[in-house]
Amino acid sequence: MSQKIINKKILVTGSAGFIGYHLTKTLLRKNYEVVGIDNLNSYYDKKLKIDRNNELLNYSKKYKKKFSFFLIDIKNKKEVYKIFKTYNFLKVFHLAAQPGVRYSFIKPHKYIETNILGFFNILENCKNHDVKKLIFASSSSVYGATKKIPYNENFSETSPIQLYAATKLSNEIMASTYSKLFKLQIIGLRFFTVYGPWGRPDMAMFKFMESIINNKELVLYNKGEHFRDFTYIDDIIDGIVKAGNYFSKEFEIFNLGNGKPIKTLKFALQLVKTLNVKPNFKFIKKQKGDMDKTYADVKKAKRLLKYKNKVNIEKGIINFVNWYKNYKKII
Ligand SMILES: NC(=O)c1ccc[n+]([C@@H]2O[C@H](COP(=O)([O-])OP(=O)(O)OC[C@H]3O[C@@H](n4cnc5c(N)ncnc54)[C@H](O)[C@@H]3O)[C@@H](O)[C@H]2O)c1
Fold this sequence. Notes:
Number of strands: 13
Number of helices: 11
CATH topology: Rossmann fold
CATH architecture: 3-Layer(aba) Sandwich
CATH superfamily: NAD(P)-binding Rossmann-like Domain
Helix content: 40-55%
Strand content: 15-25%
Shape: globular
CATH class: Alpha Beta
Structural class: alpha/beta
Largest sheet: 7 strands, parallel
Low-confidence stretches: none
Radius of gyration: 19 Å
Bound molecules: nicotinamide-adenine-dinucleotide
């Protein structure tokens, strides 16, 4: 089949991460030329990041797509400058970050280095190299202690309750300032609990699955009473791509969620049902920094981006289970 590579280079930071991997693959499928950067750190199983990156390299080789990968740490000013200088990026999708709530109590400096200094390096280079559009990952955690649900994108309704969330809200403030000062088109996307194939081992879905497979107790914080707006990866990618094509005169923030929060206990029960196993739950108390409920108001994304949620929890869990069994070679 003939294909025309679109001669506009796109940078994806965190390309070996869960969302970065899926986004890169989608952009390659659409024939964009993509440069991926990642420092492949060991916050979680490094092998999973290497495997995702190998998948991207193999895919681009097999289907003659243009993908280049560079092992770069975004906190390194010189390395970030060099990649922007070498490639004349049209758009930048900035997904590299230090995620996680609990880890922010153990290694707080990682959040400042990557999420503040690293983010600043990306912003500066977008400004200095005339990048036409920057799309970056924020998080539903910026809502924190906000009581008004569903959460809408107003700044006045943010209330971070841990350092990870504070760095993400700081990103939004820095981006908004740069956008006004230097007339940059920047969009921040607040993702809500993303799950699916190639997901993150530190997140609920993956942890529940590992507990079941290894015959261990499935631990539910806050006795499974937390509500989470679980959002399937394909819906998130659809939203990111649409944000990349959206013309915004000013800095914009969009929630990308499902808009249908469910209890973590219900989510775990659905997984148990899909695997046809007996539940073995361990209910423990709420952890420091955890939000009681996340619930996205996605009206703005639906109206302006034409964002749609297509994959329900039942189908999303089946897709994850199939991928997990295949990846771990479980028959
Ligand atoms: N997954 C979710 O549910 C969720 C929810 C809200 C926000 N987010 C945000 O979305 C983005 C992507 O998340 P994800 O779930 O794919 O996480 P991930 O950890 O799988 O991906 C992040 C990638 O960034 C890389 N990275 C980290 N620090 C780096 C550095 N200093 N230099 C270069 N690379 C670095 C990591 O190695 C990793 O591969 C993050 O910004 C995250 O905060 C994710």
